[in-house]
From TrEMBL:
Record-linked InterPro entries: AIM24, AIM24_sf, Trp_RNA-bd_attenuator-like_dom
Organism: Actinomadura montaniterrae
Name this polypeptide is given: AIM24 family protein
Length: 223
């Protein structure tokens, strides 16, 4: 597996390149050029930096984002110095891609190297009738920082056929064959959702990163 999953390491531990974890909830970017990060994720910076809205990257990507709802609003940060980013105190996990691809739930993207190529693709077998599941694909060589709710598990799909709740799967290798299983009878029994459940089925050599939650919980209203 050429993708390297660094997890959330000790505070201040340095990684190859210019991404590092300040702690498990905060990413530190040693910036000398530009980087793409989630809009509003900057918590502090030292040095000289400019922050600009990052468009969809052409009419094709704009239409894909509008139709699918996939992706996260991005900003391009240019300059030199130290940039600190975070999102809702979520756990942060780093991948280093070496001329390969990673499929990511766009809502989990925190930051990535600006020279990585991005696209929005439909999960195989997940058409509109199957919930219209779309994800962001990042390819090339560079760092990707993702957020998860709770400590995730990374599963080696080469060991056995692997299945994950469709809303809990954060990222997986583009080398995997991905299908969709929909269960009706057990919908209220398996998975974290209620009613009809959708499972993603993975086969091949690669990994899938699964978080401990479908996403942030909404606190009940108080009167």
């Amino acid at each position: 597996m050429r993708s390297q999953f660094f997890g959330n390491m000790d505070q201040g531990q340095q990684l190859p390149g210019h991404f590092a974890l300040q702690n498990s909830k905060m990413l530190r970017v040693h910036l000398n050029g530009d980087v793409l990060a989630r809009q509003g994720s900057m918590v502090a910076f030292q040095g000289q930096m400019d922050f600009d809205y990052e468009g969809a990257g052409g009419i094709g990507k704009f239409i894909k984002k509008a139709v699918t709802g996939e992706g996260v609003p991005l900003m391009r940060v240019r300059g030199q110095g130290l940039l600190f980013v975070a999102h809702d105190a979520a756990d942060i996990h780093l991948f280093y891609l070496e001329n390969e691809g990673l499929t990511v739930n766009g809502a989990n993207i925190l930051a990535y190297d600006s020279h990585l190529q991005s696209d929005i693709q439909r999960v195989q077998g997940a058409g509109i009738a199957a919930g219209g599941l779309f994800n962001t694909t990042l390819t090339g060589t560079g760092f990707v920082a993702l957020t998860t709710h709770g400590t995730p598990v990374m599963l080696d799909c080469g060991r056995a056929p692997t299945f994950a709740d469709g809303q809990s799967a954060v990222a997986w290798s583009t080398s995997l064959q991905v299908g969709v299983n929909r269960t009706f009878k057990a919908g209220a029994l398996i998975g974290r959702g209620s009613g009809e459940a959708m499972q993603l089925a993975y086969q091949g050599q690669g990994f899938v990163l699964v978080q401990a939650s479908e996403g942030p919980t909404v606190p009940p209203h108080t009167h």
